[in-house]
Write a structure and sequence with these properties.
The chain has helices spanning about 25, 40-45, 65-75, 90, 100-115, 130-135, 145-160, 175-180, 195-215, 240-255, 255-260, 275-285, 340-350, 380-395, 440-450, and strands spanning about 15-20, 80-85, 120-125, 165-170, 220-230, 230-235, 295-300, 305-310, 320, 360, 370, 375, 400-410, 425-430, 435-440. By secondary structure, the protein is an alpha/beta fold. The model has no long low-confidence stretch (mean pLDDT about 95). The chain has 15 helices and 15 strands. Strand 8 and strand 9 form a beta hairpin. Helix 7 (about 145-160) runs parallel beside helix 9 (about 195-215), helix 9 (about 195-215) packs across helix 12 (about 275-285) and helix 13 (about 340-350) packs parallel to helix 14. The strands form 4 sheets. An 8-stranded parallel β-barrel has the order 1-2-3-4-5-7-10-13, surrounded by 4 helices. It has a 3-stranded mixed sheet with strand order 6-8-9, covered by helices on one side. The protein has a two-stranded antiparallel sheet with strand order 11-12. The chain has a single domain, classed as Alpha-Beta Barrel (TIM Barrel). About 40% of the residues lie in helices and about 15% in strands. The structure holds beta-D-glucopyranose. Beta-D-glucopyranose binds near residues 171, 172 and 302.
């Protein structure tokens, strides 16, 4: 479907949250400054071979020193809110010990600057940068992680809760548990079910427990957590492809929201993986504790997936038919561009019934941008946003309670395993000089927000 290009921010109504999102490990740099401890990404990105181009995230866009300029740019583009994450290692450098006053001071400055500029802060509590000292003790596989994380959340809530009301607890729990603890592609680089299963269970518990802490500590808090999600399409009507799609759908879309809504983990007889997960749950009798009534759910959808049966792939017996082999529009990451699919997944989450409000807590795309004479003419990204915002408006008009859209991302930054090759920003970053250049998509957003 083609969505009308003539829409503007006004069509979404008053009080809508229009923002950009960034993350500490991707933007801050200054990886050891002012008492900060090492995170798993500081260590993992430093191992050659793990990241494209053998680069690390130690300096990246230097948001730590340039936050004032970057917030000013956010304001200049017309946004009214700013999502950033707090590095656990700045607040509690070794994860469990002393609180680092300089870390608190840094985020106080960022928050106060946001407020002075009229940007409502949205704070993410965990965007994948676990303290390395905790990883040495097993990280998300250790059941003590919940105690450690709860303390970090409490410290943040007490330090910032007077001014920060909007909280996103975890960024994409399926993302960091699968890539980091099953596939080994992200930090900490672990693999296998013995790591994956406990990591899932502890992350599911973390989102609910942190929610309860925030509710008890921060007055008038607006609490949510974010999920990666993808419409899953079976390659054919054959029984085995349909079953393969069902299994992948459980992993990609249902694994974390269902326990959060109080439904427990999903079940499917033909998927023994879930029984193993259930064992973790039973052993600790935690179903009740996995439940928390969030004020909103953050949706992050980057692509749909087409799935077919593959007997050689363990656990799911399924493999993805990549967009690169399917002759469909795609981004520089090889991810399918499909605004209809974005619309479908929003409706799907809304149709759970227990979801009160939805914020699109990330949305964006990487393209092969070229900076020519000080201009990045990224028409593909502009079209991307036009299409996706059109789809979002359609869902909103049909009654989905959508409260905000946060573009991913303010500026080109460290894109995890893809290093600095994948540019998602509305602003171009020159990683040698730290020069920022607003791309045409940034100007397009400014006009869209002003009209
Ligand atoms: C993550 C971001 C990431 C983006 C693009 C999301 O899964 O939250 O940190 O940069 O996708 O890959």
């Amino acid at each position: 479907m083609n969505y009308p290009y003539k829409i503007t921010a006004k069509d979404f109504g008053q009080g809508f949250h229009w923002g950009v999102a960034i993350a500490a490990a991707q933007n801050e740099g200054a990886y050891l400054k002012d008492g900060k401890g090492l995170s798993i990404w500081d260590v993992f990105s430093n191992k050659t071979g793990k990241i494209k181009g053998s680069v690390n995230n130690h300096h990246t866009c230097d948001f730590y020193h340039r936050y004032k300029d970057d917030l000013l740019l956010t304001k200049a583009l017309g946004f009214n809110c700013f999502r950033f994450s707090i590095a656990w290692t700045r607040i509690i450098p070794d994860g469990t010990g002393k609180v680092n006053k300089e870390g608190i001071a840094f985020y106080n400055k960022v928050i106060d600057e946001c407020l002075a500029l009229g940007l409502t802060p949205f704070v993410t509590l965990y965007h994948w940068d676990l303290p390395y000292e905790l990883e040495k003790k097993g990280g998300w596989t250790n059941f003590l992680i919940n105690r450690w994380f709860n303390r970090f959340v409490t410290v943040c809530a007490e330090a910032f809760g007077d001014r920060v009301k909007n909280w996103i607890i975890l960024n994409e729990p399926f993302g960091f548990t699968s890539l980091g603890y099953m596939l080994g592609k992200h930090a900490p680089g672990k693999t296998g079910l013995l790591n994956f299963l406990p990591a899932i269970h502890h992350a599911a518990l973390a989102q609910a427990e942190a929610g309860k802490i925030l509710r008890a500590t921060v007055s008038k808090a607006y609490i949510g957590t974010s999920f990666s999600c993808s419409e899953v399409i079976a390659y054919s009507n054959k029984k085995e492809d349909v079953l393969a799609a069902q299994k992948v759908d459980i992993l990609l879309n249902r694994l974390f929201i269902e326990p959060l809504l109080g439904k427990g983990y999903p079940r499917l007889e033909e998927f023994p993986f879930l029984e193993k997960l259930e064992l973790h749950n039973k052993a600790w009798k935690y179903t009740e504790r996995l439940h928390f009534d969030m004020d909103f759910i953050g949706i992050q959808n980057y692509f749909p997936v087409v799935v077919k049966y593959n007997q050689f792939i363990p656990i799911v017996n399924a493999s993805e038919v990549k967009a690169t082999t399917r002759n469909v529009p795609q981004t520089a990451m090889g991810w399918e561009i499909n605004a209809d699919s974005f619309y479908h997944i929003i409706k799907r989450f809304w149709n759970y019934g227990g979801v009160k409000e939805i914020i699109i807590s990330e949305s964006g795309a990487a393209f092969k941008d070229k900076l020519v004479n000080g201009v990045v003419n990224d028409t593909d990204r502009i079209q991307y946003f036009q299409q996706y915002l059109g789809a979002l408006l359609k869902a909103k008009k049909e009654g989905v309670n959508i409260k905000g859209f946060l573009a991913w991302t303010l500026m080109d930054n460290f894109e995890w395993a893809a290093g600095y090759n994948a540019r998602f920003g509305l602003i171009h970053t020159d990683f040698n000089t730290q020069l920022r250049t607003i791309k045409n998509s940034g100007y397009w957003f400014r006009d869209f927000l002003q009209k």
